């Protein structure tokens, strides 16, 4: 039986609005319940019981399935033997943002899917919850940073972007003894960990606590409200620093290409998620009454579920293909359904209704003919006072003008070098795998190793 206690049930609709309710009719108690931790953390007894289930495979497939190559059997064995600090260090030595990854990574399709217990139709070891248990213990314990900064090399590196890729790179460079300046476009660090994940995945301001811990190694300065191409020029960074690393993520979103897309009530799902994450009082966020979410990824799910938990009457997620083609994991899709989200498949948006403010949308039904997706000519309409677009993100075109590209992303070699000398890149802005936090962390770590080697301050990293 799984120990993963997912709070997948929908929002509490039994308590009506009172004088303390926000515009959605939600009281503080409603908010606390609807946006509480998606997965309750394990107790010590639960963690040790789950650790006992691990077979400690010699050629552990879970390690191979982890993009950051965490030694999973070792950290689980350390939990089993009451070495929580050692367990956390094993995790963080490979993935300095192991706390977020334990909360937000799709472990069910990564390490846990590779667990050998699946072969005998047993529940896989709850690797994500065990990882969270160890890392949370270390962060709560406080004290000296578990990693020491190396002797000062005199080298200075600029990192653009304080998201997972940039912060991972900065931390590893600091371990090597380099001085790092991070330029962040927003007012707070963390990137998508802070602005782009559902609030119920990152409770108690965890993203900021993790960044504070990461910066504790020293040697890293973060400058905020500094955007590449705006307040920060790439040529200046190249002239002032020994190397530059770009962890700029995907700052622009794809458009539907329909008339009326600029109407009030039509917005990007990432902006809606950010609004919720940054709101001091979530009950004041206007989620709408009848909501349409267009998309099939985890961002679409995050927007749809949170709209429902903010007491939207109807939330319909619409995708042009079938469920098998959705990039959201099965867990996320099931989470949406159990929260009352209506998932409609094989439908493409063709028209936005409204004058000044959106009132609804029309969709054309699709079918597969000869292996191709085609419209059937039949349509249906849905009412909506809010439409959230989650049809993919991209790099802003002005960010790409200086680089050789790989499709719509920055092209890098196997050392994460771009076409510009001394400029490296990683994370979502390059093609290195899935656009996941854990992959961005790995990119940052490996790029730091390559930068360190190129600067000839220690040879092989």
Q: What portion of residues is helical? A: 25-40%
Distance between the termini: 42 Å
Biggest β-sheet: count, sense, barrel? 5 strands, parallel
| Named CATH architecture of the largest domain | 3-Layer(bba) Sandwich
The CATH superfamily of the largest domain appears as FAD/NAD(P)-binding domain
SS element count, helices: 16
Tally of individual domains: 3
State the assembly state of the protein chains: single chain
Gross geometry: globular
Strand order of the largest sheet: 3-2-1-4-17
CATH topology of the largest domain: FAD/NAD(P)-binding domain
Uncertain spans, ≥5 residues at pLDDT below 50?
1-5, 13-20
Determine Rg (CA atoms, Å): 23 Å
Please report the first level of CATH classification, the CATH class of the largest domain. Alpha Beta
Explained architecture:
β7, α14 and β8 form a beta-alpha-beta unit. The two termini are 42 Å apart. The protein has 16 helices and 17 strands. The protein folds into three domains: 105 residues, Orthogonal Bundle (Fumarate Reductase Iron-sulfur Protein, Chain B, domain 2), CATH 1.10.1060.10; 155 residues, FAD/NAD(P)-binding domain, CATH 3.50.50.60; 140 residues, FAD/NAD(P)-binding domain, CATH 3.50.50.60. The N terminus is likely disordered. 32% of the residues lie in helices and 18% in strands. The strands form five sheets. It has a five-stranded parallel beta sheet with strand order 3-2-1-4-17, with helices on both faces. It is an alpha/beta fold.
